[in-house]
Model the fold of this input.
Amino acid sequence: MLTSSPYPAILVSLLGLFGTITHKDVNYNPALATRLKQPLAIGILSLLLTRTSSVTEPPALFRRITSTAPMRFLLVLCVSFLASADIENAIFLSLLFLGLLQLMRNKEERKSHPFFI
Done:
């Protein structure tokens, strides 16, 4: 069954690795990159990630929103962006991270988490 197979995780990991290597220092949208590197944007991202950690108790609405798979992927993307400060690299690093995380899971864990997040 595909949900317990390691092949999708290998594919996503290779895609992330390939993208990270081949898109190094490529900026597809300089205007977006300039806006995202502003202190206000970085500050908001940092505070958003702090709110999702164990430092504070997030409100129920925030917990409900962040419990969805798209929002969890966005949070991983935010962490990657803060680490690399390049949106293209952040996307590929997120794919690489999620693929490797899925590869580390055993067969039963992959069955219970078939969508990487």
In short: The first helix runs from residue 7 to 22. The mean pLDDT is 81.
